[in-house]
Write a structure and sequence with these properties.
Helix content is 44%, strand content 22%. It contains nine helices and 13 strands. The protein has helices at 3-40, 74-86, 100-106, 120-125, 167-173, 186-194, 205-214, 241-256, 259-272, and strands at residues 47-52, 55-56, 60-65, 68-72, 89-94, 111-116, 127-128, 137-142, 159-163, 179-183, 200-204, 218-220, 233-236. The strands form three sheets. Strands 5-1-6-13-7 form a five-stranded mixed beta sheet, with helices on both faces. A five-stranded mixed beta sheet has the order 10-9-11-8-12, sandwiched between helices.
Length: 274
């Protein structure tokens, strides 16, 4: 017998020995696995995955907390309450704003909380919650240009930085002759302002206040964007009525307890702190 024959015979013998003593071990392993599963089942909470664009203070933004980069904001606090009411663990995914609804439709996330306005187009594509917050819009410019862009008419023909897919983008498209630079993140728009690549930006009021507070040389002008602001909602996958009902239930509780206003105040203070 050559060396390959000896090796084959040895492997066959080894396999036989393993098969002979494997039955008890398999039973033991199966039992142990079953016991572990039974023991761990209650602790293994299902995840509730929230999609957001975390550059929208005080709604959602990055902050160093105990030495770790953490996504915080009052939208995050609302999501935590929804997850707690469901008995689930919250997972937050930071994504470009204009990809959020696609991620929701694909099932890769369970809900979108990211300053989402209830437009008719969105209502056709996803399930929308009750309104949980309303805020005004604002125009942000460099300090030297505050008087230059003090009205909406003065923005005609201006270079405007705007977040892609946002309601502010729709507002800017209605400004005669405006040259739009659409970007996925507000922080990128702020850099465009600082480097003189754009003249102004339209932002959510609390977001604008946060950036003006923390970025030297930027101000909010007296220009008041006119928009039929229906407030902000939470998006879930179309047809997921069970989750939507729970979201609305949690929002109703938070509003009745005055919690959302508390979350807004705390998040605003956190966004403005160094």
């Amino acid at each position: 017998m050559n060396k390959w024959g000896k090796l084959s015979m040895g492997l066959l013998l080894a396999a036989g020995l393993l098969a002979g003593c494997g039955s008890n071990n398999d039973k033991n392993n199966t039992a142990a696995s079953g016991d572990a599963a039974a023991t761990n089942a209650p602790a293994a909470a299902k995840k509730l995955i929230m999609g957001t664009s975390a550059d929208f203070p005080p709604y959602e933004f990055h902050k160093m907390v105990d030495g770790q980069d953490t996504i915080v904001g009052f939208d995050i606090e609302i999501a935590k309450e929804i997850a707690a009411d469901l008995g689930q663990e919250l997972e937050v995914k930071d994504l470009p704003f204009d990809s959020l609804l696609n991620e929701l439709a694909s099932g890769r996330i369970d809900m979108v909380i990211s300053g989402l306005s209830p437009t008719p187009e969105r209502a056709e594509a996803v399930g929308l919650s009750d309104i949980y917050y309303k805020a005004e819009q604002a125009v942000v410019v460099r300090e030297a240009d505050k008087d230059k862009f003090a009205t909406m008419d003065s923005l005609k023909g201006a270079k405007i930085g705007i977040q892609t897919g946002s309601i502010q983008e729709d507002i800017a498209k209605g400004i005669e002759g405006a040259q739009l630079t659409s970007l996925s993140k507000i922080s990128e728009i702020v850099l465009q302002l600082q480097s003189n690549r754009v003249d102004a930006s339209i932002m959510e009021g609390p977001v604008a206040k946060s950036f003006v507070k923390n970025v030297k040389g930027l101000v909010i002008t007296d220009a008041k964007p006119e928009v039929e602001d229906d407030g902000y909602v939470i998006g879930v996958k179309k047809g997921n009525t069970e989750l939507l009902d729970q979201v609305n239930k949690t929002l109703g509780r938070l509003n009745s307890e005055g919690k959302i206003d508390e979350f807004v105040t705390a998040a605003s203070e956190l966004a403005e702190s160094k």
